[in-house]
Amino acid sequence: MFVCLFLVTSYNQPKFCPTTSWNQTGITIANKSLVSLETSYVYLDQNDTIYIRNENINKIQILFANSTNPFILIPGRTLYPSGLFVTRTGDIYIVPYSANGRVQKFDWITSTYMNIAYFCDSCYDLFVTANGILYCSMSQSHQIATKSLNENHNSIAIVAGVGFAGTTSTSLRNPRGIFVNDNLDLYIADCFNHRVQFFKAGQFVGITVSETVGSMLLRYPTAVMVDGNDHLYIVDTENNRIIRSELNGFRCLIGCSRSHGSASYELYHPENMAFDTQGNIYVSDRKNYRIQKFFLVTNTCSEYIF
Q1: How many CA atoms lie within 13 A of 96 on its CB side?
Q2: 199 beta partners
Q3: Is the overall model pTM greater than 0.85, yes or no?
């Protein structure tokens, strides 16, 4: 079993074989007794530290790898919906309560949050590239905006969306999760258009990379991720499943019955997903008030993948 990672990024991006599979029965690593009511976002860094944004108790909780200790709580109210991003140096970026377009960075020395950017609207999701570009998914404004964290001024650039809801190749409708690859190409979970849009770096005309899975339509996708071999992973929220792109289309990985439920093989309005360094999948199973882990089963190739 071989899982290779890009080390320049702060998130885990394994390379998987074409025949890779995961156990469709998950285990609960955080439930209602640990994370209160609804959990809406999970993030793992390259140390397999788990960060959970919990909207109901207004905390970001941290669980270090292989730790059996209770979660470490970081003070600070967060606004739902809002993303969470942790850089490889441990900087935590969040959207604060009553944000009005603000993005904050947690200061480990003072245990306080510092205002780091001001966008035109609150960010549903955040993404920070290796070269310090902050991406904000402004769901209510139907746009994706960026700001360089290497500059002191608050110069904002729009990289996708025309500022009003639409279904064309240049417009978005309540975009949610975003992912940016090493080439600065942008993937967007265009939630209310029930599709995933792809924008080449510097281009304002998007390409729909997923709208149907077989004969089944996506329903309100909320997150998108790309692995080290450019396979696309979509959190298909209303269909209660996780799907993956392959050479011949898409394949369902988790929650393949599409009906919601609380069994270990079911999901109920999943919000986002993340990989650990071993290639296991973590899902924020929002309406079940839990974080689920689905183990990598097979990733054996005829040769090493580098």
Answers
A1: 19
A2: 186
A3: yes
